[in-house]
Predict the 3D structure of the following.
Amino acid sequence: MTLSNRRQFVKKTAFAAGALYARPTKVLAESLFTGEGPQQNSLAAAAIRKFASAIAGRVITPEATDYESSRRVFNRAFDRRPDLIVRCAGASDIARSLDFARAHNLPLAVRGGGHNRAGLSVCDGGVVIDLGAMNRVQVDADKRVARAQAGALVRDLDRATQRFGLATTSGGCPTVGIAGLTLGGGTGFLMSKCGTACDNLISAKLVTVDGKELEASQNSNPDLFWAIRGGGGNFGVATALAYRLHQVSEVLAGTLTYTNARIPELLEVFANLSERGPDELRLGAAVLPSKQGSAFQVLAFYSGYPRHGIELLRPLRALKPQEDNVRVSSYLDVQSNINPAAPVPHFQTDLILPKLSAPAIATLTTAAHDAPPNARVFIFPCAGAVTRVNVADMAYPWRQPGYELDIMSSWNAAAGKPNAVQWVKTLRDKLRPLARGVYVNQLGETSDELVRAGYGSNYARLVEIKKKYDPTNVLRSNQNIKPG
C-alpha cells in the first residue's frame, strides 16, 4: 500500500470513523458507507470499525473534538497528523494496535509523555499508540518497590513514592513520561547517588511486535532486559515498569544565578566541585544569554544533611550570585518546580565530553556571546553511582566520568527558526572533536551516525537483540537501531 493509498484508507472513512471513540458500534455501523462508491472504501470503513470495536480504550480520529490536543507533543516544532490515535487501556489494546498497523502497512509511533525531542512520539498518516491513560503507580513501601504503568509521568511516580518518603531517579520535568525516560537511560537529580532510572529498573512488561506480552528482568528474557535499559523503544511497547526505591525526603536545592557572568571562572569552579563532591551532591549548569550579557545558572541539589550541603556550596556563593534561592525543600517540590518547562518549538542536540577542558570552556564562552535570545546550554556531570556500573552491564553506555551537554534554542515565530537551529548546530560542530558520544534521550534529530554514537561499544549487541524481537523494524519511530 503506497503512502497516498494509506492516507486515503483513513481519510475516505474519516467522517464515520471520527465517532468511533464515543459511539456504540451498532449505531456506528448504520452511519458508515452503505454501498456507494468503490468497494475498497467500505472495506476500509469495516476494518476501522472492527478494530475500534475490539479496543477497550478509545480510538481518536481527525474528526474527534480532542484530536488536536491529543496529537500535540512537547516540541511544538513538530506538527504531525496521525490518522488514528489509540488511547490504550491495557496490553491487549497495544497488541491489537500493533497488529492493525502492520496489517495495513501504516506508520506507527508510541507516545508516553510526548516529550521526545525529535517529535518521534507522533507520526503523519499512521497510528499512534498512546499510553497516557495507563498511568497507575503502586508502591510497596516495605520492599521499597514502585510498580508503574508505562503511561505514568514523572509527577505521577514522584507523588506516589513521596507519600512514603521514597523516590527513584526520574527526570527533572514533571510531565516527562517515565517509560521513554527510563528506556533511554534516565538521568536526573538522584543519579549521582542512586544511578540512572534504568539502573533502578527491576523488571518491565512489554508487548512485542508479534503481540506477545513478555516480562523482562534478570531472570526472565535477560537479553531483552539488557537491551531496554538504555536501548529505547526499539524492542517492544512497555506496559509496566518496576523500580527500586530509595529513602529521600527533604533536600537542599535551588538555583544560583549570575548575570553578566564570568563564564570561564564559574565553569572552572563548577567542574571542580562536581568532580570532587560526594554522591549526594548533584549540580547542573546553564549557560544562557541575558539582557546584561551572558548569564550562568547553577542548579544545586544535595540529598544529605543540609548543613553539609551549605558548606559544599560556599565556593559558588563566594562568586556572588545575583539570585540565590537554594533552600531546604521537599524532594517533591524540587522535582515540580526547579526546572519548569513549557511546550515550545525548539531544536536540541547533545554531546558527552570527557571533561570541561580549556578549549571546551572557551568555545562555550564565545557561543554564549553570540547566542539567540532563547538559547541555552545545560551541563550535567556524569559522576558518582552512575560511573560504578560496568559499561557492558546494560545498553546505557555512559559510565565514565564526564559531562553531558544539552544544547538547545527555541523560537517564538517561524522566522526565528533558521537562526536558532544554526546556532545549535554550529556550537555542536565546534565541540564535537572534544566529545565521545551522545545521549539519545536529548537528540532533536536522528541518523544512523547519531544512534551509533549514542550506544558506543554496546551497539553491535543491540542490533542482534533487535533482530530477535523486531526483525522487520516495525518499531522505528525512535532513535532507531536497525536489524542487521
About this structure: The longest helix spans residues 39-53.
